[in-house]
Amino acid sequence: MGGYGGYVWSAFGFTLISMGGLLWLSWRAQARRTEELKALRSTVRGGGEGTPERRPRRLVATKPDQTPDSDGLATPRSTSGT
After folding, report:
1. If we measure between CA atoms, which residue out of 71, 72, 70, 52 comes closest to residue 62?
2. What does pTM read for this prediction?
3. How high is the pLDDT of residue 31?
4. What is the rounded end-to-end Cα distance, in angstroms, of the chain?
5. Phi/psi of residue 61, each to 5°?
6. Burial level of 29, CB count in 10 A (0-12/13-18/19+)?
7. Poorest-confidence range of 6-10, 24-28, 33-37, 54-58?
């Protein structure tokens, strides 16, 4: 390597250690976020033991000339024009 072997191999080792550390930190953060998401979902859905799990509410996009009903579905507004 023309005298540069020490520099090349140390840079390769540093890169390998850095990438491994980043991979480990990412896995650890993902595991924590998964547990946090489970806790939040159980809180939002009622969460207690013995509580039946309800279906998530379906979100429906509405056009500007429509209003959502109590069931979440959009119906056209009535226009009183003559």
Report:
1. 72
2. 0.47
3. 94
4. 89
5. -75, 140
6. exposed
7. 54-58
